[in-house]
Design a protein that fits this description.
single chain, alpha+beta, eight-stranded mixed sheet, three-stranded mixed sheet, 13 helices, about 35% helix
């Protein structure tokens, strides 16, 4: 058994402030200033996109701005989600050695199965569905995801306690193909809430939290006890909010990259998610990659690796791109949850096909 996890609840916070606290919690755990932690959190109405996603492609910006829905970019990968006070967020932040499992896919399965134990205690027959969902009869009740930053893992999930499905559908731009793949007519049918499942028997938030904690302690073989949020965590969170995560520039860091004249766009969808590539060529014969921008709903850890790959590929001749992608992934320490070098190659190749067909 590891040392006890600290349990904290940061309550309902504005979306960007919630994400800024994530960054602070990771840094404080890396420094050894706080112990392994289970955090509960809640959001006002918020459209939350993954670290590498294209803002305007994923979110209906006009609807969100006109209806008081916050627009936030998180520091983890994955797809866009809608959150409000009717959902309970949970996350574990801990050292790589704490659970005796070092690989992210195995940790994801272990954590999701532990969370499912908590749902079962509430009378809900939840199961883990690879790669990162917890489902009841094929409908998602909790989406999850995470990444390593050095030797510290942050792994996050939500509990759909109650929600306004129409608000979710209007706030997010959900591709029809994604719905059709699951034989669903709308995004609202993809998810299920505790309220729908339990009706009048639905427990309060404190009971739900208690069930999850017992699921984590039993499923992960840990102990956990309530603890305090430190002044340093709050100060660091405020700094990250002011300097980066709370800014419009950070949220719009990837926004309509295909609009630039001369940019070629390609996409590839595999088992681990969708990768969108936007490339621009240079030179007299347009045989050199001037730059590449890579976005999508995939998980790759650490997230900055994607930006490093983009920088690595700049100036590469077209015929050498595949080899350079292989070399990059061979030379870097990467924990991948969902995608492979072959997926990146395929996405960029599909973008370059536009040049050959022009």
């Amino acid at each position: 058994m590891t040392d006890s996890f600290r349990i904290i609840d940061t309550g309902v916070r504005e979306g960007r402030a919630n994400i800024a606290f994530d960054a602070a919690l990771i840094e404080e755990r890396q420094a050894g200033h706080v112990p392994d932690t289970i955090r509960f959190l809640r959001f006002p109405p918020t459209a939350l996109i993954g670290r590498h996603q294209d803002l305007s492609r994923e979110i209906n910006l006009d609807f969100c701005r006109n209806n008081g829905v916050g627009i936030v970019r998180r520091i983890t990968g994955g797809g866009a989600i809608y959150l409000d006070e009717g959902q309970l967020g949970w996350e574990l932040v801990f050292h790589r050695s704490s659970l005796g499992v070092a690989a992210l896919p195995e940790l994801a399965e272990k954590i999701c199965n532990a969370a499912a134990l908590g749902f079962k205690e509430l009378g809900v027959d939840a199961t883990f569905r690879p790669r990162n969902d917890i489902e009841v009869d094929g409908r998602k009740i909790s989406g999850t995801g995470g990444f390593f930053d050095g030797d510290v893992l942050i792994y996050q999930g939500t509990v759909l306690v109650d929600m306004n499905p129409q608000q979710m559908v209007q706030a997010l731009r959900i591709p029809e193909a994604k719905l059709a793949k699951r034989d669903l007519d709308s995004a609202a049918q993809r998810v299920v809430t505790l309220k729908e499942l339990l009706g009048d028997e639905m427990p309060d938030i404190e009971t739900i939290k208690g069930a999850l904690i017992r699921g984590f302690t039993e499923g992960l073989g840990i102990s956990a006890a309530p603890g305090d949020i430190t002044e340093n965590e709050e100060a660091l969170a405020n700094r990250y909010f002011i300097e980066e995560i709370g800014t419009d520039e950070f949220v719009a860091e990837i926004d309509n990259p295909g609009d630039d004249h001369g940019t070629l766009a390609g996409t590839h969808t595999g088992a681990g998610g969708t990768i969108d590539s936007f490339v621009k060529l240079e030179g007299p014969t347009k045989q050199v990659l001037q730059r590449a921008l890579i976005s999508g709903d995939f998980f790759v850890t650490p997230p900055r690796i994607v930006f490093d790959l983009e920088a690595h590929l700049a100036g590469t001749r077209i015929e050498e791109i595949d080899g350079e992608i292989d070399a990059f992934f061979n030379d870097n320490d990467i924990d991948m949850l969902s995608v492979s070098p072959e997926d990146f190659k395929a996405s960029i190749a599909n973008a370059l096909a536009g040049a050959r067909n022009a």
